[in-house]
DNA sequence: AAGATGTCCAACCGCTCTGTT
DNA sequence: GAACAGAGCGGTTGGACATCT
């Protein structure tokens, strides 16, 4: 045992800010191979210039296969409100009652959405109408076509929409500590996620520009079939990228994880396209 | 069209909790 | 029981994006 408390990391030697796709791939492939027994030593072992805490946060809040993204259903929001009233800002406790949701996400939703709603008006119904018209949280944009439960991949009826390569409901394994955990793939591939911003290496764009028919419409709420065809293209791109990064493996578990990652990331990239509002053309 | 302002969310910070020696 | 390391938690912030003027 050393003396005094060691800093969690050397701030001058770690990268901070937005995670890159490469970093995500490294982290997810490392955790799939070796698990995350020790967050402190993980970054070095995984070849990441990141603080262990940062890796942990990234994994838990974003890369973890069972993390559910997208809309909070009315039921989920009401659960948050009720639990917050009873136990206060115990976000991790609240998160434990909402499968697939992270404490950070719940906290954000509370601070940016639910708190205001409660303070301005205690009438939930009136506020829901307001939220719907304002399109708050940019996730309501598809609310007309989705029932409150439509965005939930757990709790309600099991969604089994077919996705390219993976399907909702598909099970897969990954390591958590020393034990192998089997998880069911939840719906993370939501059109509304196109709004999420993501920092992308400019070189990646030059590669994307080489892809045919990968053009983002002005309206990100494109028909589902259109998005699916785009996703096929992006899938090809990610396969190429994995090869380039030397992350391609025969290990089926890892491949599944990478698919998960790519499915998360492609939304970021699509969102980026939308943000840039630039047509992608062949060089 | 462009600057100002508002909103949202990923990530960081620092503290507390828990397990280990 | 004390001291420490590592993990977890909750508050806060910075930056990207959206909307307003």
Task: Write up this protein.
This protein has 283 residues and is mostly helical. Helix content is 47%, strand content 4%. It has a two-stranded antiparallel ribbon with strand order 1-2. The chain is elongated, with a radius of gyration of 20 Å. It binds a DNA duplex (21 and 21 nucleotides) through helix 3 and helix 6. Keywords: DNA-binding, Nucleus, Repeat, Transcription, Transcription regulation.
Q: Tell how many strands the DSSP assignment holds.
A: 2
Main beta-sheet strand count, sense and barrel state: 2 strands, antiparallel
Write the element-wise H/E pattern from the N-terminal end onward: HHHHHHHEEHHH
How far is it from the N-terminal to the C-terminal residue, by CA? 58 Å
Strand order of the largest sheet: 1-2
Computed CA radius of gyration, to the nearest angstrom: 20 Å
Instruction: Tell me what portion of residues adopts beta-strand conformation.
Output: under 5%
The averaged pLDDT comes out at: 56
Overall SS class? mainly alpha
The helix content is 40-55%
Query: Low-confidence segments, ≥5 residues, pLDDT <50?
Result: 1-6, 123-231, 247-254, 262-283
Count of helix runs: 10
Shape: elongated
Domain HTH myb-type: 11-63, 64-118
Subcellular location: Nucleus
Region (Disordered): 120-162
Keywords: DNA-binding, Nucleus, Repeat, Transcription, Transcription regulation
């Amino acid at each position: 045992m050393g003396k005094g408390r060691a800093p969690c990391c050397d701030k001058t030697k770690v990268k901070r800010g937005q995670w890159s796709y490469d970093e995500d791939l490294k982290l997810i492939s490392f955790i799939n191979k070796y698990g995350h027994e020790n967050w402190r030593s993980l970054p070095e072992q995984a070849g990441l210039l990141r603080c262990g805490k940062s890796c942990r946060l990234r994994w838990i809040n974003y890369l973890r296969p069972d993390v559910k993204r997208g809309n909070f259903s009315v039921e989920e929001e009401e659960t948050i409100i009720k639990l917050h009233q009873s136990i206060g800002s115990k976000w991790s406790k609240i998160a434990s009652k909402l499968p697939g949701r992270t404490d950070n996400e719940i906290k954000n939703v509370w601070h940016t959405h639910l708190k205001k709603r409660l303070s301005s008006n205690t009438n939930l119904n009136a506020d829901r109408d307001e939220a719907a018209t304002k399109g708050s949280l940019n996730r309501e944009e598809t609310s007309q076509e989705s029932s409150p439960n439509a965005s939930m991949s757990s709790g309600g009826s099991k969604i089994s929409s077919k996705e390219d390569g993976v399907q909702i409901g598909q099970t897969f394994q990954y390591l958590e500590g020393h034990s192998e955990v089997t998880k069911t793939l939840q719906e993370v591939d939501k059109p509304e996620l196109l709004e999420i911003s993501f920092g992308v290496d400019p070189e990646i764009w030059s590669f994307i520009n080489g892809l045919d028919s990968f053009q983002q419409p002005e309206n990100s709420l494109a028909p589902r079939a259109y998005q699916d065809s785009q996703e096929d293209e992006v899938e090809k791109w990610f396969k190429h990228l994995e090869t380039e990064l030397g992350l391609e493996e025969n290990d089926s578990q890892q491949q599944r994880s990478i698919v998960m990652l790519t499915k998360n990331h492609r939304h970021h990239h699509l969102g980026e396209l939308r943000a840039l509002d630039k047509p992608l053309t062949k060089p």
